[in-house]
Amino acid sequence: MGYQNNVVGYRPELLHNRSVIKAGMFALLEPDGLVKNMIPGFENCDVTILGSPKLGASFVDYLVTIHPEGSNLKGFGADGEEVLFFLIEGALSVGTGEKTHSLSSGGFAYCPPGVKLYFHNRSGQPAKAFLYKRRYVPLEGVAPYVVVGDTEAMEWTKYEGMEDVLIKDFLPKDLAFDCNFHILSFKPGASHGYIETHVQEHGAYCLSGQGMYNLDNQWLPVKKGDYIFMGAYCLQACYAVGRDEPFAYVYSKDCNRDVVLSDPSR
Ligand code: UGY
Ligand code: MN
């Protein structure tokens, strides 16, 4: 198995960890203590499962270090699943069905159900990626499609009209998609305008900086490398703290679908 940060043995500090798990509501995972998982199909990769249904999420998030010549050539994504691959660091090629694309840091590929995602790191350097999978919720008359892009080449948009909070959206505004992915970036001192309360879930990986995050009315310090799961109706908002870098995270959000009621006869 092994540990994601490759640190084992005695620490100079008392036993201490910032992670907080409130299954069904939220989870903050700091890197220390997270394990590497053996997942069939991922070769020469260190895979850590972050958010998952066991935490109450309708999706699974993964942090993957892809060593030189690391790959998934069997294809990520099973029947009925949509997947996202977001490259945090490094360079590699991804396959979306029949097509191959070169990604550098900030690049991403979204595959709808029926299109598997492949990757192979031939760069000679390690690469780091954030992966997502979820059961796609179909909508009559529309079909989602492959989207490949580069967030570093995208323009920032002001988030809710605020000068110091900026956002990038990965997928087009199209009812065919039942989720979207975003990078939200707060300059030091910036914050959400209000505490959000919504039915949608998020899985967020912190890309830079530091913040104070309100999760279900608990204020928690967070920083680059942390992962946050926010469940349905989890109160959520943050202030960016720190001096130099913006506090930024990549995150998923379900959208464009009504709530389905369970069948009382079952
Ligand atoms: O899109 C969102 O709901 C986003 N503003 N949530 C968040 O940053 N926690
Ligand atoms: Mn939100």
Q: Shape from CA axes?
A: globular
Oligomer: single chain
Report mean pLDDT, rounded to a whole number: 97
CATH homologous superfamily (4th level) name = Jelly Rolls
Unreliable residue runs = none
Fold and architecture overview:
There is one protein chain. Strands 3, 4, 5, 6, 7, 8, 9, 10 and 11 form a nine-stranded antiparallel β-sheet that branches. Strands 1-2-18-15-20-14-13-12 form an eight-stranded antiparallel β-sheet, with no helix packed on it. The chain has one domain: Jelly Rolls (Sandwich), CATH 2.60.120.10. The protein is globular and about 50 Å long. The protein contains no helices and 20 strands. Strand 6 and strand 7 (99-104) form a beta hairpin. With 266 residues, it is mainly beta. 0% of the residues lie in helices and 49% in strands.
Task: Give the arrangement of secondary structure elements.
Blueprint (H helix, E strand, L loop, with lengths): L19 E3 L3 E4 L13 E7 L9 E18 L4 E9 L1 E6 L2 E6 L2 E5 L5 E4 L6 E9 L11 E4 L6 E3 L2 E8 L9 E8 L15 E7 L1 E6 L2 E6 L3 E4 L5 E6 L5 E8 L12
Antiparallel strand pairs: 1-2, 2-18, 3-4, 4-9, 4-10, 5-8, 5-10, 6-7, 6-9, 8-11, 12-13, 13-14, 14-20, 15-18, 15-20, 16-17, 16-19
Bound molecules: (2S)-amino(carbamoylamino)ethanoic acid and manganese (II) ion (MN).
Manganese (II) ion binds next to loops.
